[in-house]
């Protein structure tokens, strides 16, 4: 069976939505596995790349390199977003996973401080810069692909799988960490065991590279491809014409990305360093909470297809603004597995209002010709300023002796985004492309 697209596009095989959903998501899983595994294993390899001394200082240096990776995301957002608008979503998806495979392999073989001094830290830094470049384009490529490959009434549901796959990637990293913690001694993990997850990530990315080469391009992009020359798509000049939407993406991302990284990547270390839980127990709490969080995403995404995007965003903004300080304070004094799990779940339920739909909201703000770049660049800038620095800011507050200041920082970021959620337009019924306009116009012509 074939379908014919508007604008003279040649017939092609009919699309299978679930194939596109799985194909777009599985690569995202590996991308974010590699991205988050750096953070989750940092407690084991921090001492390998810096002189012996204060453990918090070593971790702070390692998280500094983690944050630097975020500052490459705007560059990746521009380069790979431009690629996605000019050469297709599939081309951008393939490029991002290739970069991620190389960066994971570099970390896996990076030499230690004892053997080559600070050169190992330089290799680590280069790998993180490549990861930042890759992830800067991956978010927009997968968000745009999943949104455009979905039927109009199921975009919220389909795009929610971006955070399903992101969380699944983190769970794979945490799951492997749990296995290694229970099969290796602590000394072995600190010595060389931490390299295993990066080897796994490099191999997984190679498999996904093959899978992504077989994806079909989205109809929205194909129609636009025949309507405008490559030089007219994905330009900064065209993006500047949508500067209001550009600013909107930065503002609506601000609170969400800080809250997300607080309740996911940072919380494992927070439970260990502040609440005094063992590393094993803290990892298990995060694993269980994130598993529930992952299954919440499609349900919330489907809900947004019924009631709209803004109600979920507003619920997140209010919940994060008012709930962060009491939840984080309680977590800092938690004394057992179940209370810690309940509190972490409470925070993640709030964050779901943002994570389940933020990809589709951003994609619905821009036209097809500049959609990948429009999603990628402002989102990457917001993450560089707020998401990538979240753990570093948290550790800085802790080292300064005013750890509670970080809780108020997260609440303030959520408050800023809440103002945007309340005042922005609803995007659920946006027509994304000429391919959607044609069927809608057909009855009127009859």
Automatic annotation (TrEMBL):
Keyword Transmembrane: yes
Keywords: Cell membrane, Membrane, Symport, Transmembrane, Transmembrane helix, Transport
SUPFAM superfamilies: MFS general substrate transporter (SSF103473)
InterPro entries: H+-coupled_symporters, MFS, MFS_dom, MFS_trans_sf, Sugar_transporter_CS
Source taxon at top rank: Bacteria
Record membrane topology: Multi-pass membrane protein
The Major facilitator superfamily (MFS) profile domain, residue ranges: 20-428
A Pfam family hit: MFS_1
Gene3D superfamilies on file: MFS general substrate transporter like domains (1.20.1250.20)
Signal peptide location: none
Family under the similarity heading: Belongs to the major facilitator superfamily. Metabolite:H+ Symporter (MHS) family (TC 2.A.1.6) family.
The protein, known as: Putative proline/betaine transporter
Taxonomic source organism: Actinomadura rubrobrunea
């Amino acid at each position: 069976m074939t379908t014919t697209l508007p604008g003279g596009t040649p017939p092609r095989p009919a699309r299978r939505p679930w194939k596109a959903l799985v194909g777009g998501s599985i690569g995202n899983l590996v991308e974010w596995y590699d991205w988050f595994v750096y953070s989750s294993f940092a407690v084991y390899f921090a001492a390998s790349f810096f002189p012996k001394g204060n453990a918090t200082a070593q971790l702070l240096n390692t998280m500094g390199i983690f944050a630097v990776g975020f500052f490459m995301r705007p560059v990746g957002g521009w380069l790979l977003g431009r690629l996605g608008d000019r050469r297709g979503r599939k081309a951008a998806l393939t490029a991002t996973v290739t970069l991620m495979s190389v960066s994971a392999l570099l970390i896996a073989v990076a030499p230690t401080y004892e053997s080559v001094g600070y050169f190992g830290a330089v290799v680590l830094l280069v790998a993180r810069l490549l990861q930042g470049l890759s992830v800067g384009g991956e978010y927009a490529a997968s968000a745009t692909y999943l949104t455009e490959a979905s039927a109009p009434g199921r975009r919220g549901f389909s795009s929610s799988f971006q955070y399903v796959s992101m969380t699944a990637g983190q769970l794979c990293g945490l799951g492997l960490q749990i296995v290694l913690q229970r099969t290796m001694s602590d000394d072995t993990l600190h010595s060389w065991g931490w390299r295993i997850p990066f080897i796994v990530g490099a191999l997984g990315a190679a498999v996904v590279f093959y899978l992504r080469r077989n994806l079909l391009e989205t109809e929205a992009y194909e129609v636009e491809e025949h309507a405008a020359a490559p030089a007219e798509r994905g330009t900064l000049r065209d993006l500047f014409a949508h500067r209001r939407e550009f600013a909107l993406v930065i503002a609506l991302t601000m609170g969400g990305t800080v809250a997300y990284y607080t309740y996911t990547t940072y919380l494992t270390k927070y439970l260990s360093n502040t609440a005094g839980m063992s590393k094993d127990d803290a990892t298990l709490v995060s694993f269980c909470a994130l598993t529930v969080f992952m299954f919440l995403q499609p349900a919330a995404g489907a809900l947004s297809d019924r009631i709209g995007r803004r109600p979920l965003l507003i619920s997140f903004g209010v919940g994060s603004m008012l709930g962060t300080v009491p939840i984080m304070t309680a977590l800092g004094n938690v004394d057992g597995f179940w209370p810690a799990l309940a509190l972490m779940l409470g925070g993640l339920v709030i964050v779901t209002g943002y994570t389940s739909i933020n990809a589709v909201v951003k994609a619905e703000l821009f036209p097809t010709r500049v959609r990948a770049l429009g999603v990628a660049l402002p989102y990457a800038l917001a993450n560089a300023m707020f998401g990538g620095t979240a753990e570093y800011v948290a550790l800085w507050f802790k080292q300064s002796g005013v750890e509670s200041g970080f809780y108020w920082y997260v609440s303030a970021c959520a408050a800023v985004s809440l103002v945007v959620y309340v005042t922005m337009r609803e995007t659920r019924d946006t027509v994304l492309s000429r391919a959607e306009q044609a069927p809608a116009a057909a009855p009127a012509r009859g």
